[in-house]
Amino acid sequence: MAGIRRTETKQDEIVFLEHALLKVPYEHFNRKYRQAQKALEREHVILKEVEPAGTDTEDKEALLQQLKAMQERLESVEQKVISVAEKEMECYDKITTRCTWLNQHLKNISHSPYADPAAAMLWERKREDRMLVDYCTRCGFYDTAKAIAKDGNVEEYIDMEFFVEVQRVQDALMAHNLTPCLSWCADNRTKLKKLKCMLEFNCRQQEFVELIRAGSFTEGLTYARKHFSNVEPELQERVNVLMGLLAFGCNTTSVRYQKLLSDGQWVELASQFRRNSYLTHQLSSKSMLDAVLQAGMSAMKSQQCFDTDPHQKNSDCPICNEPYNTLARALPFKRVSHSKLVCHISRKPMGEPMMLPNGRVYDLPSLRAMAAASNGTVTCPRTGDVYAISAIKKVFVM
After folding, report:
1. What is the CA radius of gyration of the chain?
2. 261 phi/psi in degrees, rounded to 5
3. How are beta strands 361-363 and 377-379 bridged, if at all?
4. Which of 78, 115, 208, 263 is 20 to 30 A from residue 148's alpha carbon, by CA?
């Protein structure tokens, strides 16, 4: 029954959590389409150049050579179109499979009780496996992620390639290699510009700094003229600061330039790339596992969980116990629209609250059960005071 209760989720909550399930393959499909469109436009321009000027030329041999060159070019374009179509169909099939799987579950949980409880439990189990895979891939544990995905049969519902690519570029940046990151920026330049991301400029800045660090001032000046001459007005101040490196060099004691020359800039670039790669795919910086765990802990967190008196804590509450107590400290408290009095003895909401002479309040059934077992006396579990059952008084809660 616990498993079935866990699957009783609202449809909008499912859609919210499963946003990345469809968004990542859609963005891949969109990017492949844009790349193919640009490639075909370039091929069209080339075909115009190799197209014969006319058919009335007297040099038939030259005309045949031109037609042969055009045929070869058309065959090359045909192969590219076929390859692009196959890649787009892979993305399309992946999106279709995930939409079908998600739609089937939404139809199942729209009934009360569920049309197929076993299918709902299986869907929840697969989602838990996907959460673990998502968390492992974000942390770089790819072998573990692949093992979980294979064991849980969720390989077609994960996007391992995306996170592997992100890690590859991030590792290259940590190795002081900007080429993969700049290539990624070129592929996503339109989206980065819409999002007002400064990743490409920061990479160009770092490349310029490395030229100055190597003592290549002439090459640095040429590089600056090529990449910094037409920057946006809000970036002009940063360009002016960079140009100061041509005068100060890499041995300057200026705090501003020492920061530009520090290895910490590579760490910041790697972190910025990861953030931007998630942003271009509309992914959260946190994994779905993090979001679900934090939401669950926040839903159970109350002031009682952090009471200095250990007797006030509920042994059945995960947040009252470690390690969840420490993990939940930075999270918001749960929202309670209607508060309840909970009996410290039975751990259940009070139906008939009764007060002992020392001011402590407990539920009447709990006190009666205690009195029946101790010859008509009750012992306060928090202070140890003993009273006759006749000494208790009814509490009226307004």
Report:
1. 33
2. -90, -5
3. unpaired
4. 115
Residue 202 has pLDDT above 90, yes or no: yes
Q: Within a 10 A sphere around the Cβ of 228, how many other Cβ atoms? A: 19
Q: Where are the beta strands (DSSP E) in the chain?
A: 353-355, 361-363, 377-379, 386-388, 393-394
Name the residue among 41, 37, 45 with its Cα closest to residue 88: 37
* d(C-alpha 11, C-alpha 17), whole Å: 10
Q: Highest-confidence range of 36-40, 97-101, 333-337, by mean pLDDT?
A: 97-101
- Three-state SS for 353? strand
Is the pLDDT at 271 greater than 90? The verdict is yes
DSSP state of 31: H
CA-closest candidate to residue 36, choices 82, 73, 71: 82
Query: Does the structure show a pLDDT above 70 at 375?
Result: yes
- Rounded Cα gap, residues 222 and 199, in angstroms: 21
How far apart, in whole angstroms, are the C-alpha atoms of residue 19 and residue 38?
29
Which two tokens mark 308? 């200095």
Beta carbons of 345 and 384 less than 8 angstroms apart: no
Question: What's the predicted TM-score (pTM) here?
Answer: 0.68
Q: How does DSSP assign 169-237, residue by residue?
A: HHHHHHTT--HHHHHHHHHTHHHHHHTT--HHHHHHHHHHHHHHHTT-HHHHHHHHHHHSTT--GGGHH
Q: Is 384 left (phi over 0), alpha (psi -120 to 50) or beta?
A: left
Burial 364-382 (b: 16+ CB within 10 A, else e): bbbbeebbeeeeeebebee
> What does the pLDDT look like over 91-103, one tens digit per residue?
888 888 888 888 8
Q: How far is CA 334 from CA 13, 84, 293, 302, in A?
A: 18, 50, 14, 6
